[in-house]
Design goal:
heterodimer, A: alpha+beta, Cyclophilin, eight-stranded mixed sheet, four-stranded antiparallel sheet, B: alpha+beta, 2 domains, 4 helices
Chain lengths: 265, 318
Amino acid sequence: MSDYTLPKPIWLPMGDQAIMLDYTGFTPVHQAAHKGAGLTAEQRDGIASHIQRLAAHMRRLAPAGLIDIVPALTRLTFVVDPLILSHASLKTLVMLEHDKPLADVALTSRHWVIPVCYDGEFAPDITEVADRCEMTAEEVISRHLAKSLRVSVMGFMPGSAYLVGVDEALTLPRRANPRTKVPAQSVGIAIGQSVIYPLDSPGGWHLIGRTPFPVFDPHRPEPILFDAGDVVSFRRITQTEYDELEQAYSVGRLTETDLRQEVSS
Amino acid sequence: MSVTILQPGPYSTIQDRGRFGYQHLGVPTGGALDREALAIGNALLGNDAHINGIEICFGGFSVQFDVASRITLVGSVGATLTVEEKSGKITDYRTCDVIEVGAGDIVTVPPFGDSLSALLCIAGGLDVPVIYGGTGATPNAKIGGFEGRILQAGDVIPLGKAGDEPSPSYQCQRDIFTKQTELRLMLGPQDYWFKQEAIEALLETSYKVSPQTSRMGMRLQGAALAHKGPADIISDAMMRGVLQVPADGQPIIAMADHGTMGGYTKIGCVIAADIDALGRIRPGDTISFSSVTADEAALALQQHVAARRAALTVKSEG
């Protein structure tokens, strides 16, 4: 990553209250630019990590009139109060910081071990995933368990994390027919990523398991479990253990700290 | 010190200005559909700007006060409000009237026909928990407001502490809540991904607001906007007022409860001067768009703010 040079980003306005820095850029080949198809996985990781650092840095600087900073995988959006901070001033402020070495901007990198039950009603798509990936359901599970994933970006709903680093053999497009209701805490895979649904919501990911621990709970002091940069791995549990852990959570005997693992490097 | 919801209407929620600074964790900004109406309601009552109110979509709402309070209804020209005292005396009011209600009074907002939403503001607001810097409800994320949901009959909601009566007291011309169906937008950030005919269709034809409209998004029906390629992008940030265009070419305007990330191409975004007007547009209305530059948007916002200030005037004595 240290040797990697970032592509030169371009600024694109999103109305007068927001402006985004787009690292996929324009090229004569619109489609490649648009889908980020011209980027390797390593380049994308480099861009995503730079975006998170620049976002954290600007959040700390907190210039007047900068209301929100919303990182995505290849684009970073700044929301402003246009009566206080013009797009032109914001661009100047950001570009002054942009090329500084941001490598020392500390990002969170907690390691979470999430218990997941891959059985029965919790895994309605596991047979289809296994068939389409030409492997057994057990192999799908062991491949999902084998890798540590990283939160590349948070978003859409409170607490939802896009987890990257899923075994490439499990890469599938999203479901052709999204479900109208996916239960909260479902674990899904698609497009080479994994997610844990924070809420009951519509969804198009393939569901292969469920965790008894909510990644979002508005009644917790810290309702949202993950942040960008965190490492997430999974631990297989049985249906009985699922019930026990769910019960333990409901009475306060299972907390966030029970899921934290000290990073051994 | 509380109010009891007697009739919730089809979609009523507690709303404030919104949540800012937490979208990077996936927390939607939410907040009132018509934030400038909320600001005016708070000014009329002498509330601080962060105080919440009850956002009532379509009307059909009634609530009972167990203490004397001061209220106003804002966000619509045509909406009315009746106060029924314990004696049986009924008094009718209009938007922007500042009303003293007594303990036991029942306040009713019958169905109204112009605006999508109106806001019932109460001196001191409603005392509900702050989560991520806001008290407004985003029901699809189950956060904020009263138990993270839309209001139901029987809900008993504590009232916040009211300040002193505002001095000087303000009055407001209710015609500033006139529905505006011609909206100005800035093209981008992904307008380059649309065919020229699509840009022309967006700016030269009109769109009908679909019944499938919610606090998350206003779905439009009209000329399909054709992409140069696939409609999906690598997901990026969303913004209230953004026009997303999925593969079917029918635009969806992001509203207050939009998710923080979106994966459809964004052809344009309604400018700040017109963003609150979205909270007054109803399903079935016909709307149209014009494109402005960044400089024109800045000027429009200054003019808009000046007009809002001029509409709120100090009440003369007597």
